[in-house]
Design brief:
The complex is a heterotrimer. By secondary structure, chain A is mainly α. In chain A, about 70% of the residues lie in helices and about 0% in strands. In chain A, helix 11 packs antiparallel against helix 12. The longest helix of chain A is centred in the last third of the chain and has 39 residues. By secondary structure, chain B is an all-alpha fold. Chain B is built from three helices and no strands. Chain B is about 50% helix and about 0% strand. The longest helix of chain B has 24 residues. Helices cover about 30% and strands about 5% of the residues of chain C. The chains are: A mainly alpha, B mainly alpha, C mainly alpha. Chains A and C meet through helix 4, helix 6, helix 7, helix 8 and helix 9 of A and helix 1 of C.
Chain lengths: ~500, ~80, ~210
């Protein structure tokens, strides 16, 4: 299937014809040209922009909810009489706003941007994709309002109401997923680049685990098992995979070198698929679950070393010797930090699954530090990198302010490092204290207090960073299309540059 | 104990053999050929030929050798942001 | 990979495999699980209270599981006389085992703190009873009135935490929540587990986790 409105015989369609599945032309000779890529970007422009806009709104809302939750640790009576803001509702509201609001919506957007480019075909069923993003967001919105009103399914990561919110989420994701898979089916390339595997597979994965997790048919230990089957797989088969797909695409592209080893990519993908899904029970180590299930999960967690190291080596060797590139591309900086954080949080997670470490860290704030290392330093920074790269290409203008990018980067980078180190330390102190039965429980609470306060300080830094980023994105969008001639949009081919001279 | 009972062994074979056979088929079918070329799919025409200011001379000449004469910066120059 | 169908089937196979191993298979095994004779189903009031517990997110700070003494010191700390087993949770839908101990484990709180008045005051303002506590207060589970009606239960509050004027009355929700908390008692013996004795895995099924 050729690009829309282009009769197959014209010369500029030589590339399309050549990249069709039954082509015999050597792949290394085939490149898309810049005009084509711009057309493909245009095909997904509306849903991608909509997704980013909604995601940024969620980012701000989720940040506010997180700040409130954090302050409540330090000042437990803060907003204490407000039923809707009680910690037990604000905390899951924060998690759901960030995971399903911010991250998932932004991930829909990056998926819809990548697929046409990777498949060399315009986005198929773009209206369906747009509709899916809207339906999903309505579902999340309804779910969080209900959550704060005290209506919840009661399971961590699965709180959003079964009846009023979850069906909308399933339908919305299915709509976006249908658009993604239809685009894949309509592809003009023979071989599927690694990012395609990650992005495409994520949609059936999240659909299956979300539905399985939300069925109201489990009791007791079964309920715990499905809870963490879902919770862990939402991390590994949805949040991780879309972002690994993004990093695999943008990192080599910005640096200007192909990915180091395609075999490692294969091992990374199938290793993740096979081992990750068995990890979930490591959230229940020590708990009333048959020990063979726990042992399976611990084993699978350790086996995760293989795909994690494969991905890490692959990405490192691609950029090795060229870290200087980060100074020229903010998108690359965020993506590289995200990639390193993926390796770090995965190795940390594998360590935490070991029984001896788990004795200390389970049930403590360490878990929260670990989850933010993953959900923020990997997922969120990766999505920031994606937005820094993608948005100028869709708007037709460069980011207006180098200072705002620097401020954003320094505030969230510094804030998160403080967050993870402080809260991780607090969690370990708490855990060590709880291990000694002679020490009263009070000591574990007191031990954590200074670290919780430090976390609140870090939260404030991060919040400011988010406001700056959202404001900057708004500035970029409001400036509108530039007067730069469209042909060729040479400027867009190169990675994001921050201009020190004044705007055209 | 649990692990060496017949149903478990059978289950393991029923679940484990098909993927292995499938993998063998995939290898035979040529799913894993042309791997290195696929990694070039993400680049546009000439994208690999741009002069990148962070590259050391050795890296620059390597790029020239692989992809041909390098294209200098056009309208927008590379600028440092950090 | 060239065939999208491989991607699709491969992705399906791996996640379905995990579903079978971790969910479907254990569910089939554990569906044989019977309630221990000493464990009664929750009463209507206790179920209402359990829903209040869920709706206010108590699970985000409190766990409900006692781990084996060979693994850690939950039993020595007094959180239970024996490790928790799957049979303890047959009436728990959904489970509330929890993943955080910002506050103490609660699976045996009904045995450890059997005083309803203590719980009511603690819910109203935790720091009235436990000065170092960082638990949120739940004044909205109570009613603040000028004067108590004839059949109202008034909460006795120490001067330092009492409201300026009027009385604080216990609502049905608060009463139900406390009833649920008092029902959290899993200290009856199970199978071959004597209370306070460490017992490793003895056979298939409901053995406590090592």
């Amino acid at each position: 299937m050729a690009v829309e409105n282009s009769p197959a015989s014209r010369p500029e369609n030589a590339v399309e014809n050549a990249t069709r599945r039954d082509s015999v032309i050597d792949h290394s000779k085939i490149r898309a040209n810049v005009a084509q890529i711009a057309l493909l970007d245009r095909s997904s422009r509306f849903p991608v922009l909509l997704g980013f806009a909604l995601a940024l709104i969620w980012l701000l809302e989720g940040t506010l909810l997180g700040d409130i939750a954090s302050f409540k640790f330090d000042f437990p009576d803060f907003l204490g009489s407000q039923e809707y803001l009680t910690f037990g509702r604000v905390r899951p509201a924060h998690l759901n706003a960030m995971v399903y609001g911010w991250a998932s919506t932004a991930m829909f957007a990056v998926s819809l941007w990548m697929m046409p480019r990777l498949c060399r075909t315009p986005l198929q069923w773009p209206g369906l994709a747009t509709g899916g993003i809207i339906v999903w967001n309505i579902g999340v919105y309804i779910g969080i309002i209900l959550l704060m009103a005290g209506v919840t399914d009661g399971l961590e990561w699965l709180e959003l109401d079964n009846v009023m919110a979850d069906p909308l989420l399933v339908i919305g994701a299915a709509m976006v997923g249908a658009s993604i898979w239809k685009t894949l089916a309509a592809r003009n390339v023979e071989h599927l680049y690694v990012s395609v595997w990650y992005v495409a597979a994520s949609y059936p994965w999240i659909a299956i685990i979300f539905i399985a997790g939300n069925l109201p048919i489990y009791t007791g230990s079964e309920s715990a098992a499905i809870n963490w089957f879902y919770g862990h797989n939402a991390l590994g088969l949805w949040l991780t995979t879309i972002n690994l797909g993004l990093i695999y695409y943008l990192l080599p592209k910005i640096v200007g070198r192909p990915i180091y080893s395609y075999w490692l990519s294969l091992i990374g993908f199938w290793g993740l698929a096979l081992f990750y899904s068995l990890n979930g029970m490591h959230h229940l180590i020590g708990g009333p679950i048959p020990s063979w299930m726990i042992a399976t999960s611990i084993t699978a967690s350790i086996l995760m070393v293989i795909p994690v190291v494969a991905v890490g080596i692959n990405q490192h060797m691609t950029i090795a010797g060229r870290f200087g590139a980060m100074r020229y591309s903010p998108a690359l900086t965020f993506l590289v930090l995200a990639a390193m954080s993926y390796t770090a949080v995965s190795l940390q997670g594998i360590l935490t699954a070991l029984v001896n470490v788990n004795r200390v860290t389970h049930f403590t704030h360490w878990t929260i530090a670990h989850s933010h290392l993953g959900l923020y330093m990997f997922v969120t920074l990766s999505l920031f990198g994606g937005i820094y790269y993608i948005l100028p290409r869709l708007i037709g203008r460069e980011w207006p302010s180098a200072n705002m990018i620097r401020a954003h980067f320094l505030l969230v980078g510094l804030g998160m490092v403080i967050y993870v180190v402080a809260l991780g330390s607090g969690g370990v102190m708490q855990g060590l204290s709880m291990l000694d039965p002679a020490i009263p429980f009070e000591a574990s609470v007191e031990a954590a207090k200074p670290w919780l306060l430090t976390r609140s300080f870090a939260a404030v830094l991060i919040s400011i960073g988010h406001v700056i980023f959202a404001a900057h994105a708004l500035m970029l969008v409001l400036r509108g299309r530039s007067s730069v001639p469209e042909d060729p949009p040479f400027f867009f081919v190169r990675p994001v540059l921050v201009r020190n001279d004044k705007a055209r | 104990m649990f692990a060496n009972s017949v149903p478990v062994i059978l289950l393991g074979l029923i679940i484990g053999l098909p993927p292995l056979l499938f993998l063998a088929w995939a290898l035979r079918n040529g799913q894993f050929e042309h791997l290195d070329e696929t990694s070039f799919e993400i680049f546009e025409e000439e994208e690999l030929r741009y002069l990148r200011p962070w590259e050391k001379p050795k890296q620059v000449s390597e790029r020239m050798q692989k992809y041909g004469k390098l294209l200098p910066a056009q309208r927008e120059g590379w600028k440092r942001w950090l | 990979m060239t065939r999208a169908i491989i991607l699709f089937l491969g992705a399906m196979a791996t996640v379905l495999f995990a579903l079978v191993v971790l969910i479907i298979l254990p569910n089939a095994m554990m569906s044989q699980l019977e309630a221990p004779p000493d464990l009664k189903p929750y009463t209507q009031e206790e179920l209402l209270g359990r829903q209040v517990y869920i709706d206010n997110g108590c699970v985000y700070c409190h766990s409900q599981q006692v781990r084996d003494p060979s693994f850690t010191t939950d039993v020595a700390r007094g959180w239970g006389s024996r490790p928790s087993v799957p049979a303890d949770y047959v009436f728990d839908k959904p489970h509330l085992m929890g993943t955080m101990r910002t506050g103490p484990d609660l699976i045996n709180v009904g045995a450890r703190l059997p005083d309803a008045q203590w719980h009511l005051l603690h819910l109203y303002q935790p720091r009235a009873l436990v000065p170092w506590s960082i638990m949120p207060p739940y004044p909205f589970l109570f009613e603040h009135k000028e004067t108590a009606a004839p059949d109202d239960t008034v909460l006795t509050i120490p001067q330092s935490h009492a409201p300026e004027s009027g009385v604080v009355v216990v609502t049905d929700e608060a009463r139900a929540l406390v009833a649920y908390l008092l029902a959290l008692k899993r200290d009856y013996p199970v199978n071959n587990q004597a209370p306070t004795q460490a017992e490793g895995e003895t056979g298939e099924g409901e053995g406590a986790n090592k």
